[in-house]
Amino acid sequence: MEKIQVSASRKYDIIIGRDLLKDTGKYVSQVISPCKVCIITDDIVYGLYHHMVCSSLTDAGFEVFRFIFEKGERSKNINTVSSILELMAENDFTRSDAIIALGGGITGDVAGFAASIFLRGIQFVQIPTTFLAAVDSSVGGKTGVNLQSGKNLAGAFWQPSLVLCDCNTFATLTYEIFLDGVAEAVKYGAILDKSLFDLLMLHGDKLFNSSMVGNNDCLSDTLIQIVKQCVSIKRDIVMEDERDTGIRQLLNFGHTIGHAIEKCSNYSITHGHAVALGMLIVSKASHKLGLCQTDCSLDIENILMKFNFPITCPFTSEELSHIALKDKKRAGDTITLVLPESIEHCYLKKIDISDLKTFISAGL
User: Fold this and answer.
1) What is the DSSP string of 40-108?
2) In terms of Cα–Cα distance, which of 104, 344, 108 is closest to 233?
3) Are the C-beta atoms of residues 109 and 143 closer than 8 Å to each other?
4) If you ran DSSP here, which 8-state letter would residue 361 be given?
């Protein structure tokens, strides 16, 4: 087990290891006194882990309530958050009570946003159960939901009180869901850590295989190491730029176009797969348009192919630019993109919104 501390607007620990869920109550009670807790989870994760987590919390003196939503991006909306708030209000939750997010990135974003606005803010705990949530979304305090016009357009910065990452949960993932986390890990390597990028390239699709599914004993120690490296990078960035006004924007590599791909597909293309395509499109366009001297697109394409990611985008530059112009990285007549100068070195580039379609066309 490893403990990584984040010192942001709220100081908290990220605990990474195996077999942690059975002791959820013990870990949560170290940072939150026994109280009412509302477990937010989806209908798939509920069947896998709710009983273990609920029993542990109850044994530790917590009064447990639960909110279960239908899995998938379509549930990541303001109506889901409203229903969570009503449930807690009906059950007399107070500012001393808490929310626990049990699941992947969607669950964490929804639960965190609900925690940030209920009674103007209550504590919450992140318990990521996907590789994506473990390496990225459970850390850093970004919460939010999608609007009809685009992804993550309503949200708040609200840091958790604890992140409890039991890597044994990866054994219940399909390879396609696992890949969503791989894309985020590739992002971390591409923007700041070539050793991580090389480690991912070395292992490729052997990092996760069918023998791991349902078998914790086959879980690779390398996977746990990758979680630690990604979380450590994000911890350092968040501590320097919690509110996303500077260096933290580098974490958006591939995301502006990735979010547009998700929206254009009506979310049938998942977040990580869309971000993978977004990174590749940006890398190709940056070099082709002379914005980066080094052509990183071959390295990005090779690592994506190593993991068997689809690398062909099914949408046009016109479709993507129309959605991307509603992205939260837009400010007036410019939009900020993250461009790769070389592997482990990216920079922020503001481009005029009138040039975005041309930029995307160059990357397709």
Assistant:
1) EEEHHHHHHHHHHHHHHHHHTTPEEEEEEE-SSGGG-SHHHHHHHHHHHHHTT--TT-EEEEEESHHHH
2) 344
3) yes
4) H
- In sign, the C-alpha dihedral spanning 103, 109, 110, 112 is positive
pLDDT in tens, 252-303: 999 999 999 999 999 999 999 999 999 999 999 999 999 998 999 999 999 9
* Strand order, beta sheet including 11-17: 2-7, 11-17, 162-166, 123-128, 98-103, 36-42, 63-69
Kind of pairing between the strands at 36-42 and 98-103: parallel
The dihedral formed by the CA atoms of 233, 234, 240 and 246, expressed in degrees to the nearest 10: 110
pTM of the predicted model over 0.90? yes
The count of residues in the chain is 364
The β-bridge partners of 143 are 156
Instruction: Give the N- to C-terminal CA distance of the chain in Å, as an integer.
Output: 43
Judge whether 291 and 346 are in contact, CB under 8 Å.
Answer: no
The domains located in the chain, with CATH, are 2-172 (3.40.50.1970), 175-207+253-363 (1.20.1090.10)
CB atoms near residue 210 (< 10 Å): 10
């403990």: which residue's tokens?
A: 3
37: β partners: 64, 98
**Residue type at 321?**
S
